[in-house]
């Protein structure tokens, strides 16, 4: 062995022999030696290899055992006769010394094991002890202490280095954690830390464990402990979203996003979404956050190569059943809640009806509608991606990507639940929303009522009080963009498809779309999307064109999208 390496080993052994865990005065010298050795080991992988094969592991194992014993028996045998202030100072000094020793040892091991499999295996023998120390430093009281939080971060970085790149150790650690009691799983505790630097260390370790492993990622989405970890992850993503660019919080968010990207690309979102459900809850906050991440992924993932295109197409195909089922359940819930709030069925509504306060307002309805918007946006993105790739791909092979794209497009056109198709469901929901959510023009709700064929008739703006009587005042941001995205989805589904065009006519979809060709501040660009949907409804369909011609109003549209009758005008 080279003499310089032997000198490092001798220095380490001497420092270990001269310290006593119960004598805090001996701790600084050992910390100083460990910190110096950490610097030397971090410079050269050859030095780490030679140091690791030296006779150093007996002392290392003993250091960990001493530390965990001292920390976990910190309050035992405290029969000191010192005064309260003196005893408190002594305790703080001892705690500070033990924390400093933990940090120095963790930093030393972190550098010793980097990219050296043998050293990783030897260091992993102390994993159960390291886990107990992490458990101690991630207690609720400890995580409020900056020194304890720092110790937890360095210990986590060390543990991450011990397993990184070592498949056997990663599998062992992951399997161990997922079979512990929840309160013993340090990952859950680390993810609850208020310190973004601790979160970054924990998230980095998680993504290292997930690397290219579908089985370990599956455990994260299907096992109870995995669900608890994901719940903490989703909470952290919400907290970190507004972190300053370039900060530890922003970097932690990026790593967390990468974790959910792996979950999405392995096709495991449906499993995780189900795990996040709660009894008697139509949708939970964590499910909504997951859909936001999914929506972001679908809209931002580039298709840069044939291989990437194939992978993304498979990812989209796996999502279709979940998204359609989710859309139906949320839409049916929303329709039921709206009907209850309006007291009477829309079919019984007459233009001369007056209406008091809503019979029942469902407090979950805004969250359901927010989730509906996300679901609709995901479906829209998938269909548009399929449509675009179909025209770019080769349709000659039945197993080609283009064939899968055709199947995706057809799936949403043909999917049914309880005898009702997706387009019919959207039309019914839009019909109810037109009653429930008055359009906003110049900051004021404009009440509407239906003409004899279902076409829109707007009341005068001066009758704002009447609008409040006709419909419940709904000012929750959860309703924003809902009608816009639903009519946009309708327009996409009926594009160049005679069967869908006819289905929409039969269920009154033409009248519903006509009623949405207006300005609504709650739904930016809804008029443009409705006009596009109407174009797709009428294209090459003489029957649909005749329906529109029959109910075509006379008069002029003003700049705000309101139909203004001219004197003497008669509606057909």
UniProtKB/TrEMBL annotation:
Keywords on record: Cell cycle, Cell division
Q: Which InterPro entries match?
A: ARM-like, ARM-type_fold, Ataxin-10/CTR86_families, Ataxin-10_domain
Tell me a GO biological process for this protein. Answer: cell division
Give the GO cellular component terms, alphabetically. Answer: cytosol
Start and end residues of each Ataxin-10 domain: 482-559
Function according to Swiss-Prot or TrEMBL = May play a role in the regulation of cytokinesis.
UniProt entry tagged with the keyword Zinc-finger: no
Entry's Gene3D superfamilies?
Leucine-rich Repeat Variant
Where in this protein does the record put region Disordered?
A: 448-469
Q: Which domain of life is it from?
A: Eukaryota
Presence of keyword Cell division = yes
Q: What is the protein named?
A: Ataxin-10 homolog
Xref: Pfam families? Atx10homo_assoc (PF09759)
Family, similarity comment: Belongs to the ataxin-10 family.
């Amino acid at each position: 062995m080279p003499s310089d390496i032997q000198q490092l080993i001798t220095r380490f052994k001497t420092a270990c022999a001269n310290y006593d865990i119960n004598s805090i005065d001996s701790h600084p010298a050992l910390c100083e030696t460990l910190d110096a050795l950490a610097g030397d080991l971090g410079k050269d992988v050859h030095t780490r290899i030679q140091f690791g094969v030296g006779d150093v592991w007996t002392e290392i194992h003993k250091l960990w055992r001493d530390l965990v014993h001292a920390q976990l028996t910190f309050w035992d045998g405290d029969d000191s006769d010192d005064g309260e202030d003196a005893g408190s100072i002594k305790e703080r000094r001892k705690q500070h010394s033990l924390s400093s020793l933990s940090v120095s040892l963790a930093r030393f091991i972190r550098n010793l094991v980097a990219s050296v499999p043998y050293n990783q295996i030897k260091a992993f023998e102390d994993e159960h002890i390291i886990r107990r120390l992490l458990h101690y430093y991630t207690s609720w009281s400890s995580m409020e202490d900056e020194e304890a939080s720092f110790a937890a971060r360095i210990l986590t970085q060390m543990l991450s280095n011990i397993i990184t790149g070592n498949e056997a150790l990663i599998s062992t650690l992951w399997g161990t954690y997922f079979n512990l009691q929840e309160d013993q799983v340090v990952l859950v505790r680390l993810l609850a830390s208020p310190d973004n630097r601790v979160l970054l260390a924990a998230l980095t370790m998680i993504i290292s464990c997930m690397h290219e492993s579908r089985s370990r990622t599956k455990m994260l989405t299907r096992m109870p402990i995995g669900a608890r970890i994901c719940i903490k992850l989703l909470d952290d993503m919400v907290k970190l979203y507004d972190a300053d660019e370039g900060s530890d919080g922003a970097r932690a968010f990026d790593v967390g996003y990468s974790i959910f990207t792996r979950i999405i690309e392995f096709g495991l979102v449906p499993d995780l979404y189900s795990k996040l459900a709660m009894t008697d809850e139509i949708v939970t906050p964590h499910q909504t956050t997951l859909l936001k991440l999914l929506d972001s992924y679908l809209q931002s993932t580039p298709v840069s190569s044939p291989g990437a295109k194939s992978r993304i197409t498979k990812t989209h195909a796996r999502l279709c059943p979940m998204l359609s089922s989710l859309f139906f359940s949320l839409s049916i819930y929303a329709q039921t809640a709206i009907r209850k709030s309006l007291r009477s069925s829309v079919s019984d509504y007459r233009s001369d009806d007056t209406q008091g306060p809503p019979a029942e307002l469902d407090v979950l309805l805004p969250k359901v509608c927010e989730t509906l918007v996300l679901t609709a946006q995901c479906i829209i993105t998938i269909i548009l991606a399929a449509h675009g790739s179909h025209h770019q791909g080769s349709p000659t092979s039945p197993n080609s990507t283009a064939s899968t794209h055709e199947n995706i497009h057809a799936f949403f056109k043909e999917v049914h639940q309880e005898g009702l198709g997706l387009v019919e469901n959207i039309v019914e929901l839009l019909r109810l929303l037109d009653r429930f959510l008055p359009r906003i023009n110049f900051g004021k709700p404009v009440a509407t009522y239906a003409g004899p064929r279902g076409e829109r008739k707007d009341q005068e703006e001066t009758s704002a009080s009447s609008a409040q009587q006709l419909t419940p005042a709904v000012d929750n941001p959860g309703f924003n963009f809902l009608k816009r995205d639903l009519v946009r989805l309708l327009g996409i589904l009926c594009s160049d498809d005679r069967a869908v065009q006819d289905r929409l006519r039969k269920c009154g979809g033409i009248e519903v779309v006509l009623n949405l060709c207006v300005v609504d501040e709650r739904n930016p660009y809804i008029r443009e999307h409705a006009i596009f949907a109407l174009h797709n409804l009428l294209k090459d369909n003489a029957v649909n064109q005749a329906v529109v011609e029959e109910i075509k109003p006379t008069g002029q549209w003003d700049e705000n999208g309101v139909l203004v009758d001219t004197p003497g005008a008669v509606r057909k």
